[in-house]
TrEMBL record:
One of its GO terms (biological process) is peptidoglycan catabolic process. GO terms for cellular component: outer membrane-bounded periplasmic space. The keyword Hydrolase applies. It catalyses: Hydrolyzes the link between N-acetylmuramoyl residues and L-amino acid residues in certain cell-wall glycopeptides. Its EC number is 3.5.1.28. GO terms for molecular function: N-acetylmuramoyl-L-alanine amidase activity. Residues 254-408 form the MurNAc-LAA domain. Keywords: Hydrolase. This is N-acetylmuramoyl-L-alanine amidase. It holds the Pfam family Amidase_3.
Length: 419
């Protein structure tokens, strides 16, 4: 490119508007089928799941979950890999982790919220599997109900028929209506930053090596601090893509940022690595080719968020992919790189950075066609020192302030060059 990112930023929105309009329309159409419903009826208390057990072998497996009230449920199937999806109304899971230790047909069992009004269990199977019997039974003492699920191994042909016969697109059937909460309206002339707390709800993210803290709580705590800090900056407005412990699909996060008129998108994460001695912050931008193996592996894990939640993965139409890649390469990626460099510069000498702190890979959550975007790895929950810092409110405050400095510099340069 002959022009720098800062020369292109603010006026670029006008120049791109016509080119992006068609891409955006197609993008929203592609995302619509992936968006889970998120609202629940007012005044309805969540179910309580207070006990569970799993028993069986590689041929048959039984799952039993105990609830305080009669649960409505629905069962669906997803392929590649095989998963059994059990959708429920909003549920508080007061379960001991060992009570749903995977065994028999299942090699992973996850559960959690899918947005206000709905929850989900995802049973990852070792091969083609069918639920042959499911029913709710009252407890003998009359003080609760048991959901009993019996599953059996089946052949591929039978599983393919289950997939073709079901009328399901991946949405949450337990929640009756609704779309993701819209971001606040952009004030006239404001420079808007969308702060995305990674993971949430059923998708816990990484787990701390010492405290067993879930990444979704670490990222939300930091994101709240960052939004509060940014909102104290003159001329800057910041908002959260998720406000609580709720699941948002990757396309949904992008949609919320764009609907809020975001000028910047910052996605916050805290991953784990097998190499526990590696620590420090990293800033990632999007690219169709990863800068290194670490970046490639991280992107692959982060891109599995929707799959973990039981959402069927569907590729965008080729036309959407082509447009997104073109726009990212030619305009938006340059702005993202400029922002990443500003963040690294602000962090240097102040907080621990990983070697080569600006890296790039194909992160799906950074695919907004017209919003400069970065993914910030605050540190690694697999490292004892990083984990301690990530849980320290004072450290979070310091990093939030440094990020605010980086955003302020980026904005000032962009305004100075673009009017």
């Amino acid at each position: 490119m002959n022009r720098s990112a800062t020369e292109l930023h603010l006026p670029q929105a006008k120049r791109l508007s016509r080119r992006v309009a068609r891409a955006t329309a197609i993008l929203f159409a592609a995302m619509a089928v992936l968006l889970p419903a998120t609202s629940r009826a007012e005044g309805t208390a969540p179910l309580l799941a207070y006990g569970a057990r799993v028993a069986g072998d590689d041929a048959r497996t039984r799952l039993v979950i105990e609830f305080d009230r009669n649960p409505e449920y629905s069962i669906h199937y997803v392929a590649n890999p095989v998963r059994v999806i059990i959708d429920l109304p909003e549920t508080s899971f007061g379960l001991k982790p060992e009570s749903l230790e995977p065994r028999g047909l299942f090699d992973a069992i996850r559960y959690g919220g899918m947005g206000a009004g709905a929850s989900r269990l995802v049973l990852s199977a070792k091969g083609p599997t069918e639920v042959t019997h499911a029913e709710v039974k009252p407890e003998e003492d009359g003080k609760g109900f048991r959901l009993v699920i019996d599953a059996e191994r089946i052949d591929q042909a039978r599983f393919d028929k289950l997939l073709s016969d079901q009328q399901w697109t991946g949405t949450v059937s337990a929640a009756k209506t609704g779309r993701p909460a819209l971001a606040p309206a952009k004030a006239s002339g404001a420079f808007v930053v969308a702060v995305d707390a990674g993971h949430g709800g059923i998708d816990t993210g990484a787990i701390g090596s010492v405290t067993k803290t879930e990444e979704k709580h670490v990222t939300l705590a930091f994101a709240r601090d960052l939004v509060a800090t940014l909102n104290r900056e003159a001329g800057i407005e910041a908002f959260l893509t998720r406000r609580g412990d709720e699941f948002l699909s990757l396309p949904q996060r992008v949609q919320i940022a764009r609907q809020g008129g975001a000028n910047l998108f910052i996605s916050v994460h805290a991953d784990t690595l097998k190499q526990k001695d590696i620590r420090g912050a990293t800033v990632y931008t999007i690219s169709d080719k990863a800068s290194d193996h670490l970046a490639a592996n991280l992107a692959a894990r982060e891109n599995l968020s929707d799959e973990i939640a039981g959402i069927p993965l569907e590729s965008e139409p080729a036309e959407v992919a082509d447009i997104l890649i073109d726009l990212t390469r030619r305009e938006t990626q340059a702005f993202s790189v400029n922002l990443a460099r500003s963040v690294v510069s602000s962090f240097e000498g102040q907080i621990k950075l990983i070697n080569n702190p600006h890296r790039h890979a194909g992160f799906r959550v950074l695919q907004a066609p017209d919003v400069p975007s970065i993914l910030l790895e605050l540190g690694f929950l697999s490292n004892m020192e990083d984990e301690k810092q990530l849980l320290d409110p004072e450290w979070r405050k310091k990093v939030s302030q440094l990020l605010a400095v980086a955003v302020r510099r980026y904005r000032q340069t962009a305004v100075a060059n673009g009017g």
